[in-house]
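Example S7 (structure tokens).
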């Protein structure tokens, strides 16, 4: 039954259209269950065109991307184009039950959208339960032909995809505490840190003196990762497909869902060097995997010795190193696609974010505090993913009962967010968020400012918040409780980072601004996969503008329907809730 689709099945047609610089780039994604063996055991995983990671998509800015998804797997799936603006193509966002119902086994769907106004590295991934563990790949956007990079042209470009691997059937993955995985992979390979993969390590052959553009993606489900190359610096030139001021560093950290474009010059003596990743876990008191670095290899042409130099990795809870890298990079003002930061704000939101609790369901053993299970929340709302119809269809066809549009712009009450203590009944209530599918409605073209305040209600840790459909400016970034007077006067309205995913520091906050110029329903959620079922999520509904051209179009006629077939895999229900 399991059809392994060969690489040649991924056919690439680049049809040059009459406009010289825009093309239609077409791919076929055969999603099927295949056997892979990154460690010592073979495991059946869903994969695109038989590979882990899946195919790399390369387009130029301005191109139209067409991907035919043929679902021969046993899973319900969608494919999300993480970080792509989807301007006027919200139906193509691939957010399960937000913009579409999933593509069921033996069904097809074609995603078709333009990629405009962004250049760099993004990723595509499944957006249904935890299937993005193995259904993901790089999406590389180069400048239009004839347009240069805003940095010296690299000799070669190299995608580096970091992944998290559980050595068990992917369908059982959520029966394990989320951070505890069996390995991390670089481009599908576990390398010399694990017993059965010593000879299967990602190797990059380099020529002395040449400069390479590393297109780095953290596709791990649940772990932030540090990245270093022994004895070498790197120069960051883009984050989340937005150019930055060149930033020289010997270490970087990526949250799940983030990407970094960095130049790396082979300017050290001819030998072998490890490139290494290791987990960054900012949570306190949470089980963490061992801190072994996971290695790939840089091989200088002509190297003779066989023992690689290794980098010294930061300690796993090195918040200072992570924060320095994450907060010091600035946007490339005046660079391609740069737009000045909006000064005027139309919608101000203050959103508390963190983990709370939910009473343990009957006949279940929960491992959370007081015997409850964890529940994530934004402004004390745990987001419930709709089950019978996608939010955007409900919005478009005006069908009630799927969601409410009352997501609050403030938490239910003010408290000392980062030093939460239970002293009163009302404090105790704060630990139990309300379970709801709620959205915030925004007028077309308004500027939204969101202060995301990390709370310490259960545990403080970095949560990577990701916005669909837009990039946001990160105008504020700090520790402690956000002070609307003191901190508002320090916002960077000149050259902030512009990106789609940001780690909100443990016990800290970020201040984000975006312009709601794209009608549709857009998720804003934590990109730790384990925190999605916990409901660290909300949705924005951006209303139509004044013209047909600024309005949400009708859904494509073949948009997958939500007919529930109980025999299709959703996710097994554990009777021990180990989720963290
Ligand atoms: Cu990368 Cu909502 O996802």
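Recovered sequence:
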């Amino acid at each position: 039954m399991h059809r392994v689709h060969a690489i040649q099945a991924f056919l690439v047609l680049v049809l040059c259209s009459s406009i010289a610089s825009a093309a239609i780039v077409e791919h076929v994604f055969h999603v099927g269950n295949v056997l892979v063996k990154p460690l010592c055991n073979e495991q059946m995983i869903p994969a695109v065109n038989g590979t882990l990671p899946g195919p790399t998509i390369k387009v130029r800015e301005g191109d139209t991307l067409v991907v035919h998804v043929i679902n021969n797997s046993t899973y319900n799936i969608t494919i999300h184009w993480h970080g792509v603006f989807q301007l006027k193509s919200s139906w193509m966002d691939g957010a399960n039950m937000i913009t579409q119902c999933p593509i069921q086994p033996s069904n097809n769907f074609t995603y078709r959208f333009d990629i405009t106004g962004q250049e760099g590295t993004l990723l595509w991934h499944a957006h249904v339960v935890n299937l993005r563990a193995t259904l993901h790949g790089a999406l590389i956007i180069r400048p239009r032909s004839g347009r240069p990079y805003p940095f010296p042209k690299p000799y070669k470009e190299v995608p580096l995809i970091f992944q998290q691997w559980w050595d068990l059937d992917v369908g059982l993955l959520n029966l394990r505490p989320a951070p505890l995985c069996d390995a991390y992979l670089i481009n599908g390979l576990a390398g010399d840190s694990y017993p059965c993969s010593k000879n299967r390590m990602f190797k990059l052959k380099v020529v002395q003196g040449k400069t390479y553009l590393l297109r780095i993606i953290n596709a791990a489900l649940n772990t932030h990762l540090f990245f270093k190359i022994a004895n070498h610096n790197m120069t960051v030139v883009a984050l989340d497909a937005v150019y930055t001021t060149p930033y020289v560093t010997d270490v970087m950290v990526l949250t799940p869902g983030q990407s970094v474009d960095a130049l790396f010059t082979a300017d050290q003596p001819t030998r072998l060097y490890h490139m290494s990743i290791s987990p960054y876990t900012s949570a306190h008191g949470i089980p963490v995997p061992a801190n072994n670095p996971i290695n790939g290899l840089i091989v200088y042409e002509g190297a003779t010795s066989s023992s690689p130099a290794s980098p010294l990795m930061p300690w796993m809870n090195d918040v200072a190193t992570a924060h320095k890298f994450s907060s010091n990079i600035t946007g490339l003002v005046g660079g391609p696609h740069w737009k000045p930061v909006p000064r005027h704000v139309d919608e101000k939101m203050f959103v508390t974010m963190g983990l709370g609790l939910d009473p343990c369901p009957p006949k279940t053993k929960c491992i959370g505090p007081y015997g409850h299970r964890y529940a994530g929340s934004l402004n004390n709302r745990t987001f419930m993913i709709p089950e019978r119809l996608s939010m955007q269809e409900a919005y478009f066809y005006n069908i009630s009962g799927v969601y409410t549009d009352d997501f609050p712009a403030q938490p239910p009450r003010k408290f000392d967010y980062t030093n939460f203590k239970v002293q009163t009944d009302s404090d105790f209530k704060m630990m139990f968020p309300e379970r709801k599918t709620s959205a915030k409605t925004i007028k077309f073209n308004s500027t939204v400012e969101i202060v995301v305040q990390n709370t310490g209600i259960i545990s403080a840790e970095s949560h990577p918040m990701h916005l669909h459909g837009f990039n946001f400016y990160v105008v504020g970034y700090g520790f402690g409780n956000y002070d609307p007077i003191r901190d508002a006067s320090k916002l960077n309205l000149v050259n902030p980072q512009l990106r789609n995913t940001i780690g909100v520091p443990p016990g800290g906050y970020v201040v984000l601004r975006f312009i709601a110029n794209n009608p549709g329903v857009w998720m804003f959620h934590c990109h730790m996969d384990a925190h999605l079922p916990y409901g660290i999520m909300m949705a924005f509904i951006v209303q139509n503008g004044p013209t047909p051209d600024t309005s949400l179009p009708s859904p494509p006629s073949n948009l997958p329907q939500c007919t529930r077939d109980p025999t299709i895999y959703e996710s097994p229900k554990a009777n021990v809730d180990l989720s963290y």
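Notes on this example. The two ends are 35 Å apart (CA to CA).
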